[in-house]
Amino acid sequence: MHLEIPDSLEIDFHTALNQDEFDKVVLTRRSVRSYTNEPVPEAILQHCLELALLAPSSSNLQPWEFHWVRSSDLKKRVAEFCYSQPTAKTASDLIVCVARTATWPSHLEQLVKVLKAQPGVSPSAIKYHEVDLPKMLEQGRFGLKGHLRSIKYRLKGLKKVQARRPGGPSDLLLWAVKSTTLAIQTFILAIRAHGFDSCPMEGFDEVRISRLLKLPPDAHIVMVVSVGKRAKNGIYGKRTRLEKERFIKQY
């Protein structure tokens, strides 16, 4: 099972898809804490990872990486660095989800080539990627360009509508993490749609996992996602959410 991205889909984009089936995916997705011994088929996991790559990202720069921990020895080590949580120890697979802040120049270079090769792409779109984006993202030595850009944004924002981020290095990290979380959620929903389960973990030793996987200095582990088939005792309690009025505001 391999994901192919077609030029067009034989569907009416103005017609709703199967809402009931999507609701089932969302309503039955739970953070599973214990799994059975049933493995997740390799083809399914590969397919779900490829679907995750179709998530939206800022300016389509895709600042994410998914490190699929497959060897049993490495899985044991990563699970240990996730505080030996049952969801990590019993998982069929572990996916280390990483946001990168240093890959955007190479991604941008390739995107510009693709845009220039596509018929009908407007010159303004090419200029945005080729000229404007580097000015918005470059940090310079010690992040000096980014910090100066933050100051400029604040000053210009006093008189007119002005984008404020990304400015300095911390803004750039936030920029990368936001896009990466969209891809993680796509992956989690895709896994559930295939009848398997997951648990996004924030409890882990990032330094030790980064060393184990030899991640580069700009790599920030956003989450470690465990994947498997939920065990009977895999759900810890009833799903609880506070009243919707706390979160949904209307104007």
Low-confidence stretches at least 5 residues in length (pLDDT < 50)? none
> Which topology of the largest domain does CATH recognise?
NADH Oxidase
| Overall domain count | 2
Principal-axes shape call: globular
C-alpha termini separation: 45 Å
Key features of this structure:
251 residues, 12% strand, single chain, four-stranded antiparallel beta sheet, alpha+beta
What does this entry look like structurally?
This protein is an alpha+beta fold and about 250 residues long. It folds into two domains: about 150 residues, NADH Oxidase (3-Layer(aba) Sandwich); about 60 residues, no CATH class. The protein is about 45% helix and about 10% strand. The chain is built from nine helices and four strands. Strands 1-2-4-3 form a four-stranded antiparallel beta sheet, with helices on both faces. It is globular and about 60 Å long. The termini are far apart. The relative contact order is 0.20. The model has no long low-confidence stretch (mean pLDDT about 95).
Compose a concise summary of this entry.
This protein has 251 residues and is an alpha+beta fold. Helix content is 44%, strand content 12%. The protein has a 4-stranded antiparallel β-sheet with strand order 1-2-4-3, sandwiched between helices.
